[in-house]
Design goal:
The complex is a heterodimer of chains A (about 350) and B (about 55).
Chain A: H1 3-12, E1 34-38, E2 42-43, E3 49-52, E4 57-63, E5 73-80, E6 89-97, E7 114-122, E8 126-134, E9 139-147, E10 154-160, E11 174-184, E12 197-198, E13 219-229, H2 241-248, E14 252-265, E15 270-276, E16 286-296, E17 305-306, E18 315-321, E19 326-337
Antiparallel strand pairs in A: 1-4, 2-3, 3-6, 4-5, 5-13, 6-11, 7-10, 7-13, 8-9, 8-11, 9-12, 14-19, 15-18, 16-19, 17-18
Chain B: E1 5-10, E2 16-22, E3 25-29, H1 36-46
Antiparallel strand pairs in B: 1-2, 2-3
The chains are: A mainly beta (about 350), B alpha+beta (about 55).
Chain lengths: ~350, ~55
């Protein structure tokens, strides 16, 4: 490439942070590194949502198999295939917060193009539908990439023009959804979606022929997924693990260290403990508590209860009633979930 | 999203909460429309497919 051309190309690439997706490197796995017997939509590796409306059962895991030989990928392995697929679909998607998308200028004449790039490795071949969806206005656009070689890492890029009509609300709700389909039955593929338009089920995954879900033991992997402004797919942006983890904490936090509530109370009195979250979350989160141990006046083998009205984007508190007067303690772990 | 159960509960301090069981896991849900669990609970309630049990 000539210097002049290189400089011209660099001029068209936005500087600063480029990847609008979280955990595109698949390195952050707060919920765990393997999700066996997954038969319903669920979050897996951080920010990555398995959305299957099929009768399949899959295992999703963080794999060390990566196109560069070092890193992580998200791997789906079909354990129970879906025999009937006309009205079924399965995709891997990421939902992006509206606050992060205002620079796209969607809904204006200056709406910016977006380029999606990723590595994919699939035991099945065919055309895979990928696309963008704007929930606020119910609009979508799609395209396809061809997986031509079975069980081989392939690099794919797709550019979507900006939507001059659909508006992404400037709030903490879901502003944009990126989806990549492993399966789409004919109910979802019949209408051309290669230009922005009003979403309907039959234009969700136009052009999809790939069917990973129909074969037991089929596998599908994604790595280094990037969504960036412009029409050029640049090199994958590597962020530090700590930075990526902190970004993911806005949506989910797994406080895996043992928390302790300990105090002296009278009989039948209440122990309390408050928790400040290390990152302000997107919304007031749902909270789960896992019991680890207890003793003394709080010796009952139960987890504390979350005082739901206390839950905020920055913390919450829990309580537990004593069984007797005196010192007591309870040990527990917790998660907070403010996903989209 | 499938809820095994959803009910209100009262604590020792003023205020009512919602506790749901999802896939066998107890989840304390804030009454925040931006919370996806709460939004889904209310969507199913309005659709008539889910009832939030009263506090005991």
């Amino acid at each position: 490439m000539s210097n002049a051309r290189e400089i011209a190309q660099l001029g068209s690439i936005p500087s600063g942070r480029r990847n609008m997706l979280y955990n595109g490197a698949m390195q952050v796995a707060q919920r765990g590194t393997s999700f066996a017997s997954t038969s319903a939509p669920a979050y897996t590796l951080d920010r990555w949502y398995w959305n299957s409306q099929a009768e399949d059962v899959v295992t999703i895991e963080q794999s060390t198999d990566h196109p560069n030989g070092s890193g992580s990928s998200l791997k789906v392995t079909v354990t129970t295939a879906d025999a009937s697929t006309t009205d079924d679909y399965a995709d891997i998607e990421q939902r992006i917060e509206g606050l992060d998308l205002q620079g796209l200028l969607y809904g204006t004449a200056d709406a910016k193009s977006l380029t999606l790039s990723f590595w994919v490795k699939s035991s099945e071949t065919g055309d895979m539908a990928v696309g963008l969806y704007i929930p606020d206005d119910g609009r979508n656009i799609g395209s396809t990439v061809t997986i031509s070689s079975a069980s081989t890492w392939e690099y794919k890029t797709v550019t979507f023009v900006g939507d001059t009509t659909g508006v992404i609300d400037n709030d903490s709700g879901e502003g944009l959804r990126v989806w990549m389909h492993l399966l789409a039955g004919s109910d979802f593929t019949s209408v051309d979606n290669t230009a922005w338009g009003t979403y309907a089920g039959n234009r969700k995954a136009y052009g999809q022929t790939l069917n990973v879900i129909g074969t037991t033991s089929a596998t599908f992997q994604l790595a280094d997924v990037q969504l960036e402004v412009g029409s050029v797919a640049t090199e994958f942006e590597h962020r530090s693990y700590g930075e990526e983890l902190a970004l993911c904490h806005r949506y989910y936090q797994n406080q895996d260290q043992q928390s302790l509530m300990s105090s002296y109370v009278t009989a039948s009195g209440f122990h309390y403990a408050s928790h400040d979250l290390p990152m302000q979350m997107r919304a007031n989160p749902s909270v789960t508590i896992t019991y680890q141990g207890a003793g003394g006046s709080l010796g009952t083998a139960t987890a504390p209860t979350v005082h739901a009205p206390s839950i905020s984007q920055t913390g919450f508190y829990v309580y537990k009633q004593a069984g007797a007067a005196g010192m007591g303690y309870t040990i527990y772990k917790y998660t907070t979930d403010a996903e989209l | 999203m499938t809820f095994d159960s959803v009910k209100y509960y009262n604590g020792p301090i003023e205020g009512t909460g919602i506790v749901a069981v999802i896939g066998g896991v107890t989840v304390y849900v804030p009454q925040d429309p931006a919370n996806t669990h709460y939004a889904e609970i209310m969507r199913q309630v309005e659709a008539g497919t889910l009832t939030i049990a009263d506090a005991e």
